Every structure is written in structure tokens, then in C-alpha cells.
Amino acid sequence: MRKTIYEDQSTPKKDGYWMPGEFEPQERIYMLWPHRPDNWNMGAKPAQQTYANVARAIARFEPVVIGVKPEDYAAARYVFAEDENIDVVEMTSDDSWVRDCGPTFVKNADGDVRAVHWHFNAWGGYVDGLYFPWDQDELVGVKVADHAGVDRYRPDSFVLEGGSIHVDGEGTVITTEMCLLSEGRNPELSKEQIEGYLKEYLGVEKVIWVKDGIDPEETNGHIDDVACFVRPGEVACIWTDDEESPFYEASHAAYETLSHATDAKGRQLKVHKLTMPKKLTFMNEEQAASIDVVEGTLPRSPEDYSIASYMNFLIVNGAIIFPQYRDEYDALAVEQVQAMFPDREIVGVDTVEVAFGGGNIHCITQQLPKRG
Amino acid sequence: MRKTIYEDQSTPKKDGYWMPGEFEPQERIYMLWPHRPDNWNMGAKPAQQTYANVARAIARFEPVVIGVKPEDYAAARYVFAEDENIDVVEMTSDDSWVRDCGPTFVKNADGDVRAVHWHFNAWGGYVDGLYFPWDQDELVGVKVADHAGVDRYRPDSFVLEGGSIHVDGEGTVITTEMCLLSEGRNPELSKEQIEGYLKEYLGVEKVIWVKDGIDPEETNGHIDDVACFVRPGEVACIWTDDEESPFYEASHAAYETLSHATDAKGRQLKVHKLTMPKKLTFMNEEQAASIDVVEGTLPRSPEDYSIASYMNFLIVNGAIIFPQYRDEYDALAVEQVQAMFPDREIVGVDTVEVAFGGGNIHCITQQLPKRG
Prior knowledge:
Two copies of one chain form a homodimer.
Chain A: E1 4-6, H1 12-15, E2 17-18, E3 26-32, H2 45-59, E4 64-68, H3 70-79, E5 86-90, H4 98-101, E6 104-108, E7 113-116, H5 125-128, H6 135-148, E8 152-154, E9 166-167, E10 172-176, H7 177-180, H8 191-202, E11 206-210, E12 227-231, E13 234-239, H9 248-259, E14 270-275, H10 285-289, E15 314-316, E16 319-324, H11 330-340, E17 345-350, H12 352-357, E18 366-369
């Protein structure tokens, strides 16, 4: 087996490793196959079709590996039988948000890559976690690290999801207080101690704190629905001019914070605005009614706001895999993101079905940086 | 995904692929982790320890990959945490006989390797199979092929276990009539049609039929408890001078058949004798009583003969991983096999626990030939 490096042994920062920006060269993308009938409508079949579309969009640019639980393995293997750039491997998970339950990869100056295997507690554990148990999700970190063939850092108990951080690869991380200071993650740690963990495990020097995200009840406000690095010194931030929007305050506050922030290199950030969709609700009665109701999970209704943020895109080699919501602002959002990334192809994928589940393209993917 | 080549598309023989001899250079060994409480005593814990010893013996010579079902994954991953040459991957199986449920690998003149994914029905399906269901074992072939990163041949319905064949890599296969002509495998095929499948999928020209194996009730007489190729033109065959032995007749008959056989190249085979253990029964009351009784499985008793054949060894690069049964003839068997393989180290491993389950080292391993 590849090595496990526990907290009392070392950390990425001590060993000269840091998390590269998502816009840096990648080796492949990991995904998990959705299956929970109590989270996905219609037995997860529409979600699976959408994940397949996302995987195929990515596979035009780099290889994709999809982890599938044993019960779904034979069917999923068959779905991708003709896809040369997509591999299916058996990998049990409780749900399919590999960004959050999977590892974060770090790299050193020689191009060696290692994994950080955070602790995962389904976005809040016994306080406000979204399901129980999460033991299989907790193992995805080591399984993906092993599949990638890399050594693995393992903090003692630090809980973090990959969707709650964005880095510039040059010493800066953006995150939200709503999530990282939530009661359900690391309540025993002070803000300074949490900053310490981010610095040690992401190899950064500066933490930029955005106050709130836009989904307090689900991920407790992950940054990956709010803002991301476009390149060092430049970020994208969600925006709406509609004062009635439930996201108005959070988006304006985030924009303010980021516009006044300086990064680890002392640069004042340039902030690009990215629209929110016009619609707020997406699910119909039939879809909502087809989601299994289970004690302890959030009840669903067509009146619920879907957290459908255009920010939740994935950067891959030469392209942006970009959510499209059958919304009036779909084209505007593509235009805005194309302006931020003039050298990348913007590949829109209809991912309304992923939004139903509580996230989008960024949440269901995890990049392995290019080694060497 | 790697390509699947169905029967109506092509076969190894048509594409110039054949199964190399086990004594040829290997890339790695696949294993599965034992778990069935209705086959292994004491909840499979002693078996797991023995499998670990086998894996570590192999890992001195080449890498080992062990497939583990999700429920056992975390513990098995931990068992091998410090073993640099052993990888643990999630891979569900119904039991742990990868020789039989796993793929057989074939190779072409360019050194490219492909898998043959046979159909598997737990050694006899509804006729006299050993457990039900076997759907997860049936998928091990494709999972191992994918893990190895090779294309896969898939016959329409031909049932075969890897333990029922041994090849010389030069056009010859040895097998048994007891197994391959059994009612529980391919009853719709004639002996000639079965020969046809062996020729097409193993890339051989000649089938040498030994009549009987030594475990009619379990594998229906797999050849890998009876005989194997030491090198082209030379085979080993089990032997006992004890006329009271239940294996006397089968071993003498096999010896006779092999001694008079010629291979695909027209060579008369040289046959080396390998002793059977002196003891016939190995399990004690406590062990037998700790095996779960389930409707449809074979009941166990300390009076049962354990199928403990020294023939069930594995050839790896530079060594023979060799079963030891705490038997009076252990040392003699090592001596005999060392004489057959003077250039290889004979590594004895106490595998009495594997014998309890119905096989031995050869049954629980599958070699991936060296590519290139």
C-alpha cells in the first residue's frame, strides 16, 4: 500500500506540498455514481443520465474514473462500455459528492502528488448532517488516493469538504465562515486553529474568509457555490441585482469581501461577476414525490429553492464544464465565464438534475493534478 | 473502458493471443479476501490471516493486488498498510477463489495482454454448485481485467474455471473430463465443442484429457489439484503408494495418462511425481462447529477428507509459493518440487486453513503475465 502520513508524523506544508489551482494541468477527474433514492428523484436514474453527460463532457478533455457501488456496478459498467476515456471502478459510497467526501490532492516542486484524506461527516454529523451513516463516504478518500497511487496525509479528526475551499495555488485559500466555523464540523477548534489546519494541509499562507454561502441548510454555505479562483489574483463571484433574490445579500457581501481582499502575494483581488439563474425553483410535483422519504432526511417540495449556482463549474484541461439550468440566464452565464477564461472552451451541460440533489458539476468531481 | 470482444466478434486464437505458461514472467498476482462464514471457520479470521501470509510470501517476488468486499475493506486495508508490494482494492465477491471466478490472461507476440472472462456458476450452478448466488463472483472477471487495464474476451455462455486448466504456453492444455464434461457446466456442448472453446480461448492446439480429479464434490475434479506444467514437455502429477488412499486410483490413472501423452509439439511428456500429504483429515471439532450452516451448502465434519494437494502451488517470478499442511510429508514435497524447479526458491506457507475452505494457493491466486 502507499504510505499514510498521520498528523503527528507530518503535514503537506512541512513536506513542501501545496494544493494547486484547479486551473493548473490535470491528470484525470474522479466521480461517484449517484444512487440514493432518498436524495435523487426517480430512483436516481435521471441523475445517473446527467452524471454520464457530465462525465462524457469531461472525457473530451481528460480521463474520468467513476466509482460505483457494487449493486450498480454491472449496469454502470455497461453504460460506459464504449467510452474510451471513462473508467468504471467498484467504490462504495453513501452518496456521490466526491468533491466533498473525496481527497484533496497536493503537489510538490518535483511534481509528486499526494492526497489529503479529510474527515467527512455528511456536512455536519450529528448536528446537521444530511444523512446517516456516512462511513462509506469517509472511506472514499483513501480509495481514491489508492486508485491514484499516491501517499496520503490523514489528520487526526479535522473535518473538511473539498467544496468548502478554493485555492490559487500560490498561497491563498478562500472559504466561508458559515461552513468552516459551523457547529457540525470542528466545534472544538478556534478560528485560528482552523486557519492553522488549512495552512498545514493546503500549504497556504493566507485564508480569505467570506462570511456566508447560499445554502445554509445543505453544505452550510460552501464557497464553491459562491466564488472561485479564475487564476492567481482573479476570482469569480456570484451576483444578482434582484433585491428580492434570497441570494442577494450573500452575493453582495461576498463581492464586497473579495473586492477588498489581498492574497498571499499581496495582490488586491480582481473580481468577476457571475450571474445567478433567474429561476429559484426547478423541481416539479412528480419529481419531488418520487424521492423516498426517510426519517432524518430533509423533506422535499417543488417550492424549495434549488441551489443552482453557475459558480459550481469544473475547470479541466482546456475547458470549463459548465452547468446549464434551462434558465433565461444560461446564455448570459456562459458569456460571462467565457470572458473570464478566454482560452478555454465553455462546455455547457444540462445539470438541473444535479441541482435537485443539492449541488452541481464542481460538487460531483475531483481533479487529480498532473504529476511530474 | 477497455474493449469487450464478444464471441461473435473474435476470439484469442483468431487474434493471435494464447495463454502463457504460469512459469513465464509475471507482472502481478491477484487475490480476493475470504469472508463467507458458511465456508470458512471462525468467521474467516484464520483464513484471512493465512491469505495474508500467502500474499506476503508472493510480495517478496512480485506485486499483489487483493480485492476486498466493502464490509471488509477498512480492516483489510489496515492489515496491509505497511506492505509496500501489496495493494488492497474494493472488489465484491461471493467467495475468494480468484483462480476460478477471475479472468484468464492471454498474450500475443507483441507482448500485449488481454483477459478471457469466462462464465462462472460456482462450480456447477443449479446442478451441484457450491453456493447461490454467484453474481458477484461472475463480475470479478471484468473487474480484474479493468484493474489490469486490458481488453476482455467474453464468450456467450461458456462456463470454465481457471483451476480446471493448465497450459504449457506452447499449444497444449491439460484438463479433466470429470470437470469439463460435468453436467453443471456446459451440458449442451459435446466434448469436441468444449475442445473447440479451449482451443479458441486459450490459443492451444491440443487438449490432453485426464479422466478424474480428486474432489468430485467440490470443484468436480480440477486439474490444479492433480497435475501442472513444470515447463514445456514436463508435468508434475500427484502420487501416492498407499493403496488405501482415496486418491490412489485417480493419481495413478492421471500418471498413466500423462506418461503416455504427447503435447502439441509432439513431445512425449516427462512426468514428475509429487506426493500427497499423509493425513487425510485436518479440521477439528471446534473449527467444524464454527462454520455457519446454511441451507444448500455442504455440511462439514472433522471426518471429511480435506482436499489438501501439494500440487496446488503457485509459480511466481523466481519462486514457488508452496502449501504446507503440518504433515509428515511436507518436507518431502518441498524436496520433490525443488528438484522439478532447481532455479526457483521454494517458499512454504502453512495453508491448512485454505485447505479447509476447499482449495489452496493456486486456487486463491491468478497471475497477470508480464506485458511487453
